[in-house]
Write a structure and sequence with these properties.
Layout lengths: L6 H12 L4 H7 L3 H14 L7 H13 L7 H9 L6 H13 L7 H8 L7 H14 L1 H7 L5 H11 L5 H16 L4 H4 L11 H16 L3 H6 L16 E4 L5 E4 L3 H11 L4 E4 L9 H16 L3 E6 L9 H13 L6 E4 L4 H13 L3 E4 L3 H9 L11 H12 L9 E4 L14 E5 L13 E3 L1 H11 L4 E5 L6 H10 L6 E5 L11 H9 L14 H7 L3 H11 L11 H15 L2 E2 L1 E2 L2 E6 L8 E6 L12 E6 L2 E5 L19 E4 L4 E9 L6 E8 L10 E2 L2 E2 L8 E8 L24 E9 L11 E4 L3 E5 L8 E7 L11
Parallel strand pairs: 3-4, 4-5, 10-11, 12-25, 14-20, 18-21, 23-27
Antiparallel strand pairs: 1-2, 6-7, 7-8, 8-9, 13-24, 14-17, 15-16, 17-22, 18-19, 19-20, 23-24, 25-26, 26-27
Length: about 800
């Protein structure tokens, strides 16, 4: 039942209704005092206490809930909103992005208006034309999927061309076009798509019931496309039944917070979203962790909340300071700022106290079975012989475990759950084990350590996490997660599982990554062939490209099917195409002597850093020398010409990029009469010749002075198979022996001599490259980030 509305609340509801909010939103808002105060202040600042158009009201509501921090230029923003110069959510997002990227004192009104699309009018005809184009490009898919087509994706395509278009009008045109193309919905269109489901017994009922609850919370496809985090409830809604645990005796445990517990939680958090990114510091982070960061940090950022970086450091044997330092550094590189950095080990005393309380309540016991015995008993669903020992006895033995009086492997603390349950994650999971190993963070204070199953949920509760988000393989642990919090009467976060990120031609298992690093199948955790984040960074991939790729995957509960690596490469190319200046490098040089050019003559030619460079912008060009001796790539010369060949051949002309046409007049062979030593050619200073072929090249900067030599490393996929994990024990045999090719004596244009580690370039006709950390003075090393060809959409999935 909703709480009674007092006089002040009634006034707030009236005020919120006057700006066009619907009654449900208005009444929900007043349940959150902070949002109520923010929205009331915004309405007064905007001068619309007497009411306003619904479109204006919705934008003001967004300011109050999403961008509620005060800003020196907020009055200016309100003027633009109220005067309908900023009238779409996209324009509002652009406005706050502009504020975030510019210092308040540097505010420029013209730049602000341009950034927010002020004055840009998008007509219905414009929208209709773009919708027609989008439908034509996606016609095959739409006809196949009919009304199951993701309209949100179509909307996204339109908004890419028309960012300031009104999304509602766009949606209307999409619906209209869909009807024109497909006609009335058929019976098949109304059927729910079949889901592949494993046959389950009682637990399946819990999943079915939970699925019904989630279905009622699902937003529209349009909302999902615009905001991937809209699927998650607000913290104040955390009174729902999180899960149902079916016991083997037929009873059912329904886990949820009561009002008192939730109110206490909301008082501590101020109603904010609290998430956590909880990596185990036992290796380097990979691209799968990039998705987890996007979900955890992204949700907190989108809702104006907080995200912990929490090291899940419960296993001292596998953890290293190197990994801890790397994780913090790579999180920052990915663009995320933790609210606070914590360690599970920070809570070891609290966790120990909770374990003691769990024993006192009769929900845990000290067990003396070894690992093999525990496995056998679980297989047979049999209780441990020590399961029903007296509580006082377990308390005494647990204290002896803590004091180091029991040998490692001779005792564990186990949770008394349900050994006959259909869910194996209720088979009396281990809560504590003995390890006489110093801890990297906690030192030698403890010789007993909590397990993931005991620590993860309890620390989530202790840190007042609102949304505990993890990948789908943890879904079956949801029962034990809530069982433990319920048994200790602790606050329960909202748990939601999403599909993990699986990419072709690599391994994502930390165990396998650790193996190939330790056994030197690759050159360390940051080997550019690995999809570790350190490896991707070294290869030249930007965090922007990684985050765009992850965002494109969405936050869904799909089956986690394999994503083709070409899809990642597509986003890398899109980013580098905009940010990497062009230059020229010849990998396998072949000497070309320009016989009709004086030996001491050197011309300085203009070469473009950017393909769309304007001629009146000097910064968009760089100088390249053109002299009597130039070098082209060996692959660009043949002794026999052919119709479909655009390179150089005897008697044939080609154009040197940014330079002159040259014509091959002679070929000089080595003593073996097979190896080509050099080519003689004449250049056309008047540029009257118009050859089809265009070649990249590098020239001597002065007579007899060799061009800059650089090392170039060409990387291919590390594994030949799309899914090497399917090979089981044979997975190492799938490593591609040609995944790394080193070109030691490539030639580069002079401008590259000043490049530093991390700089990225497009080597024309070759691909995108980045300066590697192995570079030394006088010998730069470049890693190929990705080739120029984009196969995404041409077989990539």
């Amino acid at each position: 039942m909703a709480p009674p509305i007092d006089d002040n609340s009634e006034e707030s509801v009236k005020l919120f209704l006057s700006i066009g909010l619907d009654e449900k939103t208005a009444k929900t808002t007043i349940n959150n005092p902070k949002v109520t105060a923010n929205l009331t202040a915004v309405i007064h600042e905007a001068g619309v206490t007497d009411g306003c158009d619904r479109t204006i009201g919705n934008l003001l509501y967004t300011v109050a809930t999403k961008y509620h921090n005060a800003h020196v230029h907020r009055p200016t923003l309100f003027n633009y909103i109220v005067s309908a110069q900023i009238k779409t959510p996209a324009q509002l997002d652009a406005a706050f992005s502009f504020f975030g990227n510019n210092n308040p004192e540097d505010f420029n009104l013209n730049e602000f208006e341009e950034a927010c699309g002020v004055g840009v009018e998008v007509s219905a005809e414009d929208i209709e034309n773009v919708v027609e184009k989008v439908f034509e490009e996606n016609k095959k898919t739409i006809l196949e999927q009919r009304y199951r087509t993701n309209a949100g994706l179509l909307l996204g395509h339109v908004r890419k061309s028309l960012p300031w278009a009104d999304p509602k009008i766009v949606k209307d045109f999409i619906d209209k076009k869909m009807y024109e193309l497909l006609g009335e919905k058929t019976a098949a269109d109304h059927e729910k798509p079949a889901k592949k489901k494993e046959k389950k017994e009682k637990p399946a009922k819990a999943e079915e019931k939970k699925a019904v609850v989630e279905a009622t919370l699902e937003p529209s496809e349009e909302e999902l496309n615009m905001n991937p985090y809209s699927i998650f409830p607000q913290p104040e809604q955390n009174l729902m039944v999180h899960t149902e645990v079916f016991y083997s005796n037929g009873s059912v445990l329904r886990c949820n917070n009561n009002r008192e517990v939730l109110d206490k939680h909301l008082k501590v958090t101020g109603g904010k979203v609290y998430t956590r990114f909880p990596p185990e510091p036992n290796g380097y982070l990979h691209i799968g962790h990039a998705k987890a960061m996007f979900v955890d940090f992204g949700l907190a950022k989108e809702r104006g909340g907080c995200c912990y970086l929490r090291y899940d450091d419960t296993n001292p044997e596998a953890e290293k300071k190197e990994y801890i330092n790397h994780i913090e550094e790579i999180v920052n590189w990915m663009g995320w700022a933790p609210f606070k950095i914590t360690y599970t080990s920070d809570y070891f005393q609290e966790l120990y106290d909770l374990a003691v309380e769990l024993i006192r309540r009769g929900h845990a016991y000290v067990d003396h079975q070894n690992a093999d015995e525990i496995t056998k008993y679980r297989e047979k669903k049999m209780n441990s012989p020590w399961r029903d020992r007296p509580i006082e006895e377990s308390l005494r033995l647990f204290e002896e475990m803590r004091r180091g009086m029991i040998e490692e492997g001779k005792a564990t603390l186990r949770m008394k759950q349900d050994m006959q349950n259909d869910n194996c994650n209720m088979y009396d999971l281990i809560a504590y084990r003995i390890k006489f190993t110093p801890h990297p963070h906690a030192g030698d204070k403890w010789c007993i350590y909590p397990t993931y199953d005991f620590a993860h949920c309890t620390v989530d509760s202790l840190e007042n996490i609102t949304h505990s988000l993890c990948t789908l393989e943890f879904e079956t642990r949801r029962a034990s997660y809530y069982w433990l919090l319920h048994s200790l009467d602790l606050y329960m976060p909202y748990v939601w599982e999403y599909s993990r990120l699986n990419i072709t031609n690599t391994v994502m298992s930390k165990r396998k990554l650790n193996y190939i690093v330790t056994n030197k199948h690759v050159d360390g955790w940051d080997d550019p062939r690995l999809l570790t984040l350190a490896g991707l960074r070294r290869r030249g991939v930007t965090p922007t490209a990684i985050n765009a790729f992850v965002r494109g995957m969405g936050i869904t509960r799909s089956d986690g099917s394999m994503i083709h690596v070409s899809r990642l490469e597509h986003h890398i190319r899109e980013e580098l195409n905009k940010t990497a200046p062009r230059t020229m490098v010849v990998l396998n040089p072949l000497k070309v002597v320009i016989t009709n050019l004086e030996s001491d003559k050197v011309m300085e030619l203009d070469a473009k850093r950017w393909p769309d460079a304007q001629n009146d912008d000097p910064s968009a060009f760089y100088k390249v020398p053109f002299s009597r001796v130039v070098y082209i790539d060996q692959s660009d010369f043949r002794m026999k010409d052919s119709k479909d060949y655009y390179g150089l051949a005897p008697g044939k002309s080609v154009l040197l990029r940014y330079g002159f046409p040259i014509k091959c007049t002679n070929v000089v062979f080595a003593d073996d009469n097979e190896t080509i030593r050099e080519i003689h050619a004449e250049y056309d200073p008047e540029k009257k010749t118009k050859p089809k072929g265009v070649l990249h090249w590098v020239a001597e900067s002065s007579t007899g002075k060799e061009p800059i030599k650089v090392e170039v490393r060409l990387f291919e996929k590390l594994f030949n198979s799309e899914n090497p994990a399917e090979l089981n024990d044979e997975w190492l045999t799938d490593i591609n022996p040609n995944s790394k090719v080193v070109v030691s004596d490539a030639y580069a244009v002079p401008i590259l001599k000043d490049a530093v580690v991390g700089d990225r370039f497009q080597f024309e006709r070759l691909g995108y490259f980045a300066v590697d950390k192995d570079s030394e003075p006088g010998k730069l090393v470049f890693n190929r980030t990705v080739t120029l060809r984009d196969s995404y959409g041409k077989g990539g999935k």
